[in-house]
Model the fold of this input.
Amino acid sequence: MSDTPVDADEVRHVAELARVDLDEDEVEEFAAQFADILGYFDALDEVPEVDREDELVNVMRPDEVREGLTQEEALSNAAETEDGFFKGPRVS
Amino acid sequence: MTAQALEQRELAVVIGLEVHVQLETATKIFCSCSTEPAEDEEPNTRVCPVCLGLPGALPVLNEAAVESAVKIGKALNADIAEDTRFHRKNYYYPDLPKNFQITQYDAPICADGTLEVSVEGTRRDIGITRAHLEEDPGSLQHKGGSIDTADYTLVNYNRAGTPLVEIVTEPDFRSPQETRAFLAKLEEVLEYLGVFDATRDGSLRIDANISLVPADEVDDDGSISDEALEAANRTEVKNISSHKGAEKALAYEVTRQKNAIKRGRAVEQETRHWDESRGITVSMRSKEEEKDYRYFREADLPPLQVAHWKEEIPIPELPDARRERFHTEYGIDEESASKLTSTKEVADFFEDVAAEFDADLAATWVADNLLGELNYRDMHITDVSDRLDEFTRLVELVDADEVTTKNAEEIVLREMLDEGKDPDTIVDEEGLGKADDDEIGGFVQEAIDENPDAVEDYHNGEGGALNFLVGQVMQKSKGSADPGTVNQLLRERLDE
Done:
């Protein structure tokens, strides 16, 4: 994996999907960092194999309404709000 | 494709649909928040850490949503997967608080079904590729302009997490009319299953894939080779919200593509947005490709193994079967049988009335009178669900000859709907109780005494005279006499 470094175009594409605006020098910086991060995955190859736990199946809950959060609680971490809504930039 | 240019060949329409159906569960698909909007509800008041995508919150699947999906699969003659699982579909948009939507990818709960549609007497099976469970996103408001020009965006997550089933068809439709018939039929079936409420805003949302292929590529059985489908550029039309809208949007799109081809231009492979108010489709910039969604397994939700539920969960008799049975069991003509099976509630009510009275009387009263008057008032059977016993009482009054058919139809039923009164009250207040024979006898004698000229005309063989006298008696009884009885009594009296 680490011998196929991430190129600048891939970084730009991923940044676009994540709606992150990167400068050219940031693109270079992230390309290098991505290569490092992918390199860390190689370390997983050295982890000895273990048997996994039996998989759970059919975990469901009954269709019963429970109280959630109040509007105030729901919005308490939001940077900006308006009339009970979360407020954010234009999305086109 | 042959050397002959596409613009000179006869073209056939190929359409496939993706239908998003909102399930009628009490709670959201992965949390216990209510799916039922309160009247004039405030934004972000039916939310919790799960549907707000707060860190560390764990989704737990709603059993009722799975049951609904199994019922839908059963009704569409689909297979229920032995093993089905959930995936994360990644894209960044503020209506998705987690930056991914939990949906199903390579192991949907239902696959390989069919639904029969009938257009102008021709029946066709439409293939169902798959049906899968997923969560609805929240809703956005673009403030200060359109989506492209707005100053900012407001987000409400009350809808986020509402359970949806997405039904994907094969590209089996050959005309916009067929898609409309299919959607109407699908809605009917879903309504019978009790998993769907057509009156709820946005409960049915449709995307359509449409392309034009050379007509000679279509086999006699309507099938088209994969090569021909691959060769044609298709557009995906989004934002369709009704069967009528689907027919209009697709008719528009057929014309648009035909015109492009006629002018020798290629149809662009793209996503288009149906603008209902302008009646046109407009090109939409599409940012993501399939691979950009980076689907991966939702590790917070264990797999489902519910194939055996198909045997265990009963579904009601479906509209086609019921229509056929109404025809054979009660001898009801096709048109009335269609009306009577249009919704499960109407069909159930008809059968209740038919069990108590005569089937023909029940059919006339439910299919023609009740549905006719409701329709005239833009009302629906669900608006009078709690008053059905009053309609049964009205049929009983007619059946027992206590009120004439004419008065029951023209006065009692209409006042029941317009004024919300029960039939006995109306009959009392309007004095509509059917006159007994003694009383009619009195009116008959009065009419004879008061109209010696008409009596003479009658004896001279003038047919109109009897009708005139019948009219006089009817007037005296304020319509409560039975015209047949009056006719007979008059003749007896006059011929004495």
